[in-house]
Amino acid sequence: MLKKLLAALLFAPVVAFASAASPVQYQQGVHYEVVAEKATETPEVLEFFSFYCGHCKAFEPFAQALNKNLPTGISLTKHHVDFLRVAPPELQQSLAKAYVVAKNSGQGDRISNAIFDYLHNQRGSFTTEQDIRSLLVANDIPAMLVDSGMVNTAVMDEVAAMKQSQDHYSAAKILQGVPTLLVNGKYQVKFSGLSQENFQQDLNALVAYLLAKKD
């Protein structure tokens, strides 16, 4: 299953790295790229993704596991993009709202899995925001919570912040596809540089290394 997920992400073949007992020396240009001059003031891990993206679906289990292994006080922030051509931007923004509603109720990972499954495994589709609402309700998010959340000012502000972040990194030529994983706003993870045999372990270690990196 692991190899199938990695193949879906189109990771290039790489040589297996040293075992966990031998620390890996992560290198710019191989394991990560420097995409900004300055890091963010506070440590952060940011993923740009889309529910319509098959590669994002394949990466989702790794992203969820990464989030559980981040240092105390740091969590993976997920920004749903709206630039894929498979659906109108407004509908993609509705999916972003649905994700935020689920996340704020403590169901982000579970609903993400359900949406990915519906679109990619069941070959379902969304035509309206009501279709998205129906999927959340069918997956045990209370209708009242969905209805109030989808028009909630705080939710709308969070989705607007996603859009602003997307536009910023797109204009800087950093965000050119999904999934994209950024650490401290300065380092972009190169998935192709990570071990296929120990991808999760390597990903966790690389992100920890970049979070602590001072230069």
From TrEMBL:
PROSITE patterns attached to this UniProt entry: THIOREDOXIN_2 (PS51352)
Limits of the Thioredoxin domain: 6-167
Protein's cellular compartments: Periplasm
Protein name: Thiol:disulfide interchange protein
Family per similarity comment: Belongs to the thioredoxin family. DsbA subfamily.
InterPro entries with a match to the protein in the record: DSBA-like_thioredoxin_dom, DsbA/DsbL, Thiol_disulfide_DsbA, Thioredoxin-like_sf, Thioredoxin_domain
UniProt keyword annotations, A-Z: Disulfide bond, Periplasm, Redox-active center, Signal
Pfam family, any one: DSBA
Signal sequence, start to end: 1-20
Top-level taxon: Bacteria
